[in-house]
Write a structure and sequence with these properties.
Layout: H1 9-14, E1 17-23, H2 30-39, H3 61-72, H4 78-94, E2 97-104, H5 106-111, H6 116-127, E3 133-141, H7 146-157, E4 163-169, H8 181-190, E5 193-198, H9 204-212, E6 218-221, H10 229-237, E7 241-244, H11 246-251, H12 263-268, E8 272-275, H13 287-298, H14 302-315, H15 320-338
Parallel strand pairs: 1-2, 2-3, 3-4, 4-5, 5-6, 6-7, 7-8
The structure holds zinc ion.
Length: 341
């Protein structure tokens, strides 16, 4: 039998990576937010955080949302957005991320006065500054009510951008999932994927609603499913992709420490998990860090990390050609790193 092959940091850095759960507005560093405030001559009080930057822990999910929306509101022009999109693409490239789907709350910016055509162009041009394959998931926000879903769908229908899916985010329990059926209908009609944040801060009932009422193809977070054996069994049986973001859950107070995070149980139960960073600078993390965390917590070896990435490739909302290329890159990495020195 082959001895276990622990995964070194260098091997994780070299891994051609896929990230499926990361928010564009959540990739704005505190320093960048400060720069935007200065550029638009805003008072320091316009910044939703203090001198020290983002807090190490958020007091509540609401506190995080308020900070996130405050930072999003600093984006005033298509140029701001283009710079943020370019910085995101470069940060993904620096981690050797070769394919990524990024969630973008487009309606925020349109409601703040940005012209849709210029908005889509800015994002597209920013992404084009690297060779990373980046596709958009456009999300509606639960706590903004069903109207946010309707307006998001209308915006997507006329968008000139590489959109691969629709998403639903925001405060769980604020609006019932079934009131966002326009998202499922539009996803079907437009040939888009559908991923629903569910079971992040609330329990199994939200995950069930995401599956049953909306036909979610992927679940964002899903950690709240764990107390419900029947639901976990269903997620395993149907091999529903679950986008897990361990550090995010700790910084937002869902679990006290990473050691309390259920990632190891999710993996051992055979859930179709992927690992993601969510809002990297808000949580002082990166995808490489999250893979490192997952590896350490669940004792993953090279073959397991390759399997995690293969699951991400299969869960990606992309063509079979793109998927085959991703799988080939992962396979090459696995082969190279499985050999004994
Ligand atoms: Zn998220």
């Amino acid at each position: 039998m082959m001895p276990p092959m622990p995964v070194s940091r260098a091997a994780l850095e070299a891994l051609p990576k896929i990230e499926l759960h990361v928010h564009l507005e959540g990739t704005i560093a505190a320093e960048t937010a400060r720069g935007l405030a200065t550029a638009h001559s805003l008072e320091p009080s316009a910044l939703p955080f203090g001198e020290a930057g983002y807090p190490v822990r958020f007091d509540s999910f609401q506190h995080f949302i308020d900070t996130y929306l405050g930072v999003s509101a600093l984006i005033r022009t298509p140029d701001d957005l283009g710079a943020i999109a370019a910085a995101f693409a470069k940060a993904q490239e620096a981690q050797n991320i070769i394919y990524t789907e990024v969630t973008f709350t487009a309606l925020t910016h349109v409601r703040n006065g940005m012209e849709p055509k210029a908005m889509w162009q800015a994002v597209t041009d920013g992404f084009a500054e690297t060779d990373v394959h980046i596709r958009l998931i456009v999300d509606a926000v639960r706590d903004m009510g069903p109207g946010h879903g309707t307006d998001t769908v209308a915006l997507v229908e006329t968008a000139d951008a590489d959109i691969c899916a629709l998403g639903l985010t925001g405060i769980e329990g604020s609006t019932p999932e079934r009131e966002f059926r326009m998202l499922s209908d539009a996803a079907q009609e437009l040939g888009l994927g559908l991923t629903i944040h569910a079971g992040e801060t609330k329990g199994p009932e939200i995950v069930r609603a995401a599956l049953d009422d909306l036909g979610a193809e992927r679940i964002g977070h899903g950690v709240g499913s764990m107390p419900d054996d029947e639901l976990v069994g269903r997620l395993v049986r149907d091999f529903v992709p679950v986008e897990v973001c361990p550090t995010s859950n700790v910084v937002l107070g869902v679990f006290p420490t990473l050691e309390d995070h259920p990632f190891p149980q999710m993996w051992e139960r055979g859930m179709n998990v992927t690992v993601n960073s969510d809002d990297p600078p808000f949580f002082s993390t990166t995808l490489t860090d999250e893979l490192d965390n997952a590896s350490r917590l669940a004792g993953l070896e090279v073959a397991d990390i390759a399997e995690l990435q293969r699951r991400a490739a299969h869960a990606a909302f992309c063509s079979q050609d793109v998927r085959n290329n991703l799988l080939a890159a992962i396979g090459a990495w696995e082969q190279e790193h499985s050999e004994l020195p």
